[in-house]
Amino acid sequence: MHAERSGPTSVRDIAERTGLPQPYLEQILLALKGAGLVRSKRGVGGGYVLARSPADITLGEIVSAVDGPIVVGDFGLPHENGACDHEGQCVLLDMWADVGHHMRIYLDSYTLADCVDRANNFTGRVAPESVEPV
């Protein structure tokens, strides 16, 4: 939301604006840096800047960088060739895999720029039409 500012933003400033504890925020920023989503500058006036334009960074990239691959549950893979150990288990595993796939598509459909637009126009309510099936 402050991309128009020149220069990096300090961890302390981000922590104050977001209400996140600084040590936790530092862990998140290190993960984002490792994924190439932010760059850091050391020393006086140092901090973090986005590595790319907000329109070029998706929420899927951010979630994956911080939390790892986007999956729903850790259920493993379904058996193949009809070799299920338990009745119905493979069907459910396959369905959860689909849910994870749709979640990745959905998160990749939003960018940081979309988040900024939504924050600037936020009215405090979520319209029912904003939750659409994928």
What topology emerges from the helices and strands here?
Elements: H1 11-18, H2 22-34, E1 38-41, E2 47-50, H3 59-67, H4 89-108, H5 112-120
Antiparallel strand pairs: 1-2
Helix pairs in contact: 3-4
Description:
The protein has 134 residues and is mainly alpha-helical. It folds into two domains: 1-51, Arc Repressor Mutant, subunit A (Orthogonal Bundle), CATH 1.10.10.10; 54-134, no CATH class. 44% of the residues lie in helices and 6% in strands. The chain has helices at residues 11-18, 22-34, 59-67, 89-108, 112-120; strands at 38-41, 47-50. It has a two-stranded antiparallel ribbon. The radius of gyration is 19 Å and the shape is elongated. The model has no long low-confidence stretch (mean pLDDT 85).
How many domain regions? 2
The helix-strand sequence is: HHEEHHH
User: Roughly what percent helix?
Assistant: 40-55%
Overall structural class, as computed from helix and strand content, comes to: mainly alpha
Distance between the termini: 27 Å
Q: What does the largest sheet look like? A: 2 strands, antiparallel
What's the helix count? 5
User: What is the number of beta strands?
Assistant: 2
- Using only CA atoms, what is the Rg? 19 Å
* Shape, principal axes of CA atoms: elongated
What is the averaged pLDDT score? 85
